[in-house]
Each structure stands twice: as C-alpha cells, then as structure tokens.
Amino acid sequence: MKCILEEIPEEHRGRFTTICVNSIPDEVSFVDGMVLILMLIQMGRFRLDDSTIDRIDFNLEKVEDVYDSDDDYESNWKYEIDLYDVHPKIDEDGRIIAFSIGRYFEQHRQIPYDLPSCIVHLDRLEYLFVIDCRSLPAEALPKLPNLRTLELYFRDPSDLLNNFPLQMELNQLKTLEICGGKFQPPAHFLEWMTTNLPNLENLGFWHTEKKETERIIKALSTHDVCFAQTFKRLDIRACNLDDKLFESLLLDALPKFQSLSTLNVVSNKIESLQNIAKRIENDNKKPCVVAKSLRHIYLTGNFVENKLKNNPKEKHAMLSLLKVFNAVCTLKIYGEEHFDSDVDYALRINDAGRSLVEGGNDELLPLSVWPTVLERAYAESHRAGLYLFRGIDSQEKNPTGLYYLLRNGQALVSRSNLLGGSRYNDDGQDDENEKKDPKSRPNNNKRKRTA
Predict the structure, then answer these.
(1) pTM for this structure?
(2) What angle (nearest 5°) sits at the alpha carbon of residue 112, between those of residues 83 and 206?
(3) What is the distance of C-alpha 190 from the center of its chain?
(4) How far is residue 35's CA from residue 140's CA, in Å, rounded to a whole number?
(5) Are 161 and 132 in contact (CB under 8 A)?
(6) 200 with 148: CB under 8 angstroms?
(7) How far apart are CA 419 and CA 370, in angstroms?
(8) Could you give the CA distance from residue 289 to residue 29 in angstroms, rounded to a whole number?
C-alpha cells in the first residue's frame, strides 16, 4: 500500500485514500482496488483535484450474468467491474486476474493512452486486453508472474507496433493476439515477437491488410523464432490471406514448428489448393517438409470451401494435402452441402493413425502396441472428420479408421512370420505363390501365435 501511495502527490494522498475507502466494495481486494483507481488517474479518466468526485461506482456484476463462455482463462472470473472504459475481472479472493481497457464499438472510441506502470502491483493478473493503447510499460509487464495472455486491438495505425519495446521479454506469456494495426518496416513488433516470447503457445492475428499478412508470414518463415518448440496454435483470421500466401504459410513457415497442432485461417481469400498439391507432388528431388504435428485446419469462410465437393480438381488437391499432412483429422466448415465422403474418409484414417501405415517408416510397431493403437482409433473416433458447425461436435464413434488399420496396418497383414503364415503379402494382396500351389501354405493345424 505504501508503494502505491508514493505515486500520489503528497497533497492529494488524503483525498486519494478517502476515494478508495468510499469506492472499493468488500468483494474487491483493497490493495488491488487502490491500484485500479491509481491507473484511472494516471490514464486521465478523472482528476484528484476535482472536488466534485469523492467516490467511484465500481458497478460490480457476477461474471455468469455477463459471459457465457467455456474459455479456460475465464473459468476463475467471479465478478466484472465496469469503470469508465476499464473492465477488470476478479477471482473469489477479490484479486484482479483479468484486465481490459477500451470498448470494441466505434461510438465508444477513446483517446489513445499509455498503460500505467503501476499495473505491476497486480501480481495475480493473467489476462490483459487493451484497445488503442499507445505504449506498454516495458519494465512492468515482465514482472507480472502470472500473465499468460496479451491481446492488442487497434482501430487506427498505431505507433506502438512500429516502436515496440524490443527489450521487453515476456517469458511467462502463452498467448498473444493482435487485431488490426500496421507493421511498417522495420516492423519492430514482429522482431520482438520472434525473439522475446520463448514459451509462446498460441499466436493470433485478426483483420490485417495483405501487406501486413505478408510481413507476418515472412517473419515466421525467415526469423530464428524463439518459440519454435512450444508453438501449438496459429490463427490468421480475416487477414486477406490468398492462395499464394497460404502456400507460403503452409509449406515455408510452418514446417519449423513441429509442435503446431491447429491452423485457423477462417474468413480469408483462399480460392484453390491446387498449387499447393502440385508443389507437393512435383517436389521429387527434395521431398516436401511439412508440419507433421498439424491436426486441425479451419477453412470456414474461404472460397475453396464451396469447391471441395463439386470440383474434382479441388477435391483431388485436398486429398493430396491430407495424404502428406497425414495427421490432419479436422476441417471445420459450414453447411451440409460441403460434405464429401472421400475427404471425410481421409480425415478419419488420418486420425486413426495413417502415419503408422503410410508414414514411410521402415520400423514396424511392436505387435504388443497394436491393441492399444486399435482401441484408441475407435475410442476417439468421434473427434475426426468434417465438423459442420451444428453447434456441438458429434460424439458418435465411427469405425472407419479402425477398419482402415485392420486392413492395412502391420497388426494383421505384414506379420506373417509371427502369425504362423498369412495368405496376404505386405501389400495386403493374395500371395501369388499360394494361388499357384495351395500346398505351399503353412500347415493350418499348427498352433499359431495370434495378436
């Protein structure tokens, strides 16, 4: 409390304390409430020398009355406070764990502001969302031990992105999202992003122009990205991503991220996958390197979505892509009219374990592992396929992937020496020698080892 009062001019400390006592509700930690009021003062939302103000209405509301969300970071929110354009959320102990400044709507624009450094006292803060922020306290944010999510929203060109504090290293940050804004060369923000977030898992961009999207992909492709080992999800939504940029993203940028599982490119300008398929199929001298960990691609709102079923070339391109990206098991698209059984089949066998059968790995799985593989293929089969946004993803199990593994996997068709003989060769076809000479088949009366 002492360090907070030290930031108030001595002649105003008594008045500041009176306002805090009159304003901070019992549900809110008094110290965190003092920090909140101090931030409002430093952001110019009200003045201590205004004698007409002796209290501030915190407008406390239960979060369940405001939000209906399953997001993990919101699970501990108990109350939301509405103060001017500042919206903190508090936990059951009254501590501020989430903080947003600004309003989305055009009619609620505020003057750009500097985020006060006194935010450093909110040591439980996990989530920070700011709109039209002019500068961030480079020394304060790294000292917030629980800060996991940072979201920056810009409606106008901002000096912040082009004069970003390169010295600010956020080791604790897991999620970074940017909406709007322009990255003018030398694009300090992109340099900071690729060098100062070593534990980043989720990265998102919304509503950028094509030039900004090009710079983002170039940064991910050419820079020595510090979060390459931890990166799990990339969102590029409504960012004017076209066919050429999507190809560069998929085949040039993403291969270095071998933990990436989700790529969300909804509401872009992707019209065709054919060039990607041609590049993969024609790259004979140097096999195409892809992100083998990629499991989910969201294509909703792209022109190619309308072509998967009725355009044979686009369907072939998608099937070629799914054969190379053989862990991809989900394409989220809108509408039953886009459903194609061949694409759905490819997704389901990918989820079951296509890489085990067609992965080009000469080492066979131990026979003892196959029961677990087959059990998992069926038990988790409800999560694969063309999710059509019916509201809730289907929980019905589907045996397609299991059948694929039984027909093509080494569990049955390429273990002839262990199974006491088989009428199939490694390709799953009838053995020609057995057709010509049935006597060449092993004695079926002998005891066989079975899986």
Answers:
(1) 0.85
(2) 90
(3) 18
(4) 14
(5) no
(6) no
(7) 14
(8) 52
Q: Strand, coil or helix: what is 221?
A: helix
Cα 342 to Cα 309, 320, 347, 393, 412: the distances in Å are 9, 12, 9, 19, 25
- What angle in degrees, to the nearest 10, is found between the helix axes of 30-42 and 13-23? 120
Question: CA torsion 11→13→17→18, rounded to 10°?
Answer: 0
**Chain-centre distance of CA 442, in angstroms?**
54
Identity at 134, one-letter amino acid code: R
Determine the Cα angle at 184 with ends 183 and 190, to 5°. Answer: 45
**7: burial class by Cβ within 10 Å (0-12, 13-18, 19+)?**
middle
Average pLDDT for runs of 10 along the chain of length 451: 88 92 94 94 88 87 56 64 85 93 63 90 96 92 97 82 90 96 83 96 96 94 91 97 96 93 96 94 68 90 88 94 92 76 92 83 74 90 72 71 88 53 42 47 42 35
Pairing state between β 79-81 and 86-90: antiparallel
Tell me if residue 353 falls in helix, strand or coil: coil
Give the chain's end-to-end CA distance (angstroms, integer).
69
Peptide bond into 165 cis (omega under 30): no
The partner residues of 60 in beta bridges, in order of sequence, read 81
Which residue do the tokens 């790294």 mark? 142
**CB-CB contact of 180 with 154 (8 Å):** yes
